[in-house]
Amino acid sequence: MDPNIANNPELLQFLAQEKERAMVNEMVAKMTSVCWDKCITSAPGSKFSSSESSCLTHCAQRYMDMSMILMKRFQQQ
Known about the structure:
3 helices
């Protein structure tokens, strides 16, 4: 790493925040893809059906719960 970067705490903090933001964006994209494929079984109309909406909500919640469990487990190791 460039010594000028290592000696700049503001830049290091910015880079850490950008890395975290990229990880969150990646997780949201993956969750969207997984839940869409699971819950939307026909061509989407102008609105989701109640069953699609419910499925998407539950799928997203399960995905977030599992992500938190995995993150906590990795932090313990």
